[in-house]
Design goal:
This protein has helices at 72-82, 88-99, 101-134, 137-152, 159-172, 204-207, 213-228, 231-239, 241-249, 253-262, 274-290, 296-311, 316-321, 345-355; strands spanning 2-8, 16-23, 26-31, 39-42, 46-52, 56-61, 64-69, 181-185, 192-195, 199-203. The chain is of the alpha+beta class and 357 residues long. The protein has two domains: 2-98, PH-domain like; 120-355, no CATH class. A seven-stranded antiparallel sheet has the order 4-3-2-1-7-6-5. A three-stranded mixed sheet has the order 8-10-9. Strand 2 (16-23) and strand 3 (26-31) form a beta hairpin. It is rod-shaped, with a radius of gyration of 35 Å. The structure holds zinc ion.
Length: 357
């Protein structure tokens, strides 16, 4: 086989016209300029460095780089002859060259979207859990209270109502390891928030939606479940996972707490996942039952919130952070007509009346 080629020997930048003959696994390169030296290489001494499809090959021959330029047909033929001696890296490189730039960009985009999705779906929840697990309850309470205090600076606290709500919560006697603080803030939007470590903030407007003391107890039980089950901490950590990654990797709880407190006000807009919402419903209903309160009040509360959200946009904020699943109330028990009166009823009724004054 004899081919017309152009070659660069890597010593000078001059292209040289030559005839390449391959016979019995021996390559002979004869430059057209008579004064130029001939080259003779055996097949096994030739390694492929780089191939540009249909244009040129860069070969390494005994440590020296040689570039051969030829017609598309010849270049491809020479490539087929030497390609089995590519390293894995070179194979990838040749593959990328063969794929073409448009398809390569498309593949790159697909890979990037895949990476972003897996970060959002798996990596950031995992970082959230890791950051949450790094903290003891005491550390969480201390950081969480600082976060809540930072966020409360943005709202007008109703101190009288806060004291009544705190008494109402204490009177319910829910079981928790956290030192729970309750606040009522004057806001037209109807919302209720649970901060990591035990702060519940109830916006004044949502109080008027609760029809009786048992629905308010259900609201507090639901928020307490977010605290007890560390949903608040995990959700905040998940949303700040990029910042937290370095702190978690270095096991630096101080760094984690700094980031959390700095971003405290963001919690108002953070939505829990539907699975955490449904978990908070189930746990909340259990807390009610454990205190002798009909767990059916949880269902009644959410049916009530849904009804009000249709009539008024004030509830949109609560529903945007506590998304209601369509099947939400159907998995919760209904309120029973024969449920015995709970022991805290008279105290709870009186406090509930004071909150609605
Ligand atoms: Zn919730």
């Amino acid at each position: 086989m004899t081919f017309e080629i152009t070659f660069f020997d890597g010593v000078t930048a001059h292209p040289r016209q030559a005839l390449l003959t391959i016979i019995n696994r021996v390559w002979t390169l004869i430059p057209k300029q008579p004064e130029e030296p001939h080259h003779t290489w055996s097949d096994e001494r030739i390694k492929l460095e780089h191939y540009r499809p249909g244009a040129s090959l860069v070969l390494r021959v005994e440590g020296e780089l040689v570039r051969i330029q030829a017609s598309a047909e010849v270049a491809d033929l020479l490539y087929q002859r030497v390609k089995h001696r590519e390293t894995l890296f070179q194979k990838c490189y040749s593959w990328m060259n063969n794929v073409g730039s448009v398809r390569l960009v498309a593949i790159g985009l697909v890979v990037m979207v895949g990476l972003i999705l897996s970060y959002a779906l798996w990596v950031s929840p995992m970082i959230g859990r890791l950051a949450a697990n790094l903290m003891t309850i005491e550390q969480e309470a201390s950081i969480g209270h600082k976060m809540a205090d930072r966020a409360l600076e943005e709202w007008e606290i109703d101190h009288d109502k806060s004291a009544i709500l705190q008494a109402f919560f204490d009177n319910l006697g829910f079981d928790t390891d956290y030192p729970v603080r309750c606040f009522v803030v004057d806001e037209t939007a109807a919302n209720a928030l649970a901060f990591p470590g035990g702060t519940i903030v109830v916006f004044d407007s949502i109080l008027s939606v609760t029809e009786d003391w048992q629905q308010l107890a259900a609201l507090l039980a639901h928020e307490l479940a977010h605290i007890n089950e560390r949903h608040s901490l995990e959700t905040v950590c998940r949303n700040l996972s990029t910042y937290l990654l370095i702190s978690v990797l270095s096991g630096d709880v101080g760094g984690v707490s700094g980031i959390l407190i700095e971003n405290a006000t963001k919690l108002e807009r953070l939505a829990y996942s539907r699975s955490l919402e449904s978990e908070a419903d189930q746990f909340g209903a259990r807390y009610l039952k454990a205190q002798g309160i009909d767990p059916g009040n949880m269902r009644l509360l959410f049916d009530n919130l849904e009804r009000h959200s249709i009539a008024s946009s004030r509830l949109l904020q609560y529903l945007s952070t506590h998304p209601l699943g369509e099947a939400r109330s159907s998995v919760l028990p209904e309120r029973s007509l024969s449920w015995p009166e709970p022991s805290m009823t008279s105290g709870a009724k009186a406090l509930f009346r004071q909150l609605h004054r």
